[in-house]
Amino acid sequence: QRASDVPPGVLGRARVERRITDVLSRVRPGDIVVVDQVDLDRASALALVEAGAVAVVNASPMISGRFPNLGPTALLEAGLTMVDSVGPDLLSSLSDGDAVRVHEGRLLAGDVVVAEGRIVETDLVQRELAAARTGMATQLDSFVRNSAAFLKREQDVLLNGLGAPTLRTKLQGRPVVVVVQSHDHGVELAGLRPFIREQHPVLIGVEQGADALVKAGHRP
Known about the structure:
By secondary structure, the chain is α/β, with parallel strands linked by helices. It is built from eight helices and ten strands. The strands form two sheets. An eight-stranded mixed β-sheet has the order 7-6-5-1-2-3-4-8, covered by helices on one side. It has a two-stranded parallel ribbon with strand order 9-10. The longest helix is centred in the middle third of the chain and has 18 residues. The protein is globular and about 70 Å long.
């Protein structure tokens, strides 16, 4: 094609899923990831960069202001195009694998505008992160009050074990390794192999962390 035949913007195949952790296995270099995830975290962002995504279109805000999340910064540093606050109808407007284009805050399929939102650029991210840091005192106060209420409500379980389920696996007197899937969990698990081999700890997987353990040859 001549350069004049190529439409402006970022072109790619849409990978559509509500959460980034559910779409990562399907992302290929050159794909445009379409999600609905508030407060993009850094681990998910780095995983998208590693998978080769070229753009992210988010139905929700990349930064809600609840806390200063670093995912958008990681995507900006890697040169990805971002559009957010597109709206809840975004995911139902596309099918996985559709050829799409992102240009000037719009998501297009052919010449049809599928959705439109905010262009997420450096100035916007810096302003919203600064505002989120300012609001951290309020969030911390809410966290402390919620934690106190939780501890009071669950004190019988936490202090006396009343109501806790009976496990087939013996925990008493054994070391425990809790695994949460993150951007570099494979490297961390590889480094733990000598410890796991020698100490025989109980391995607990949180959500996709259980899949990560199985993939690494362990039994969660």
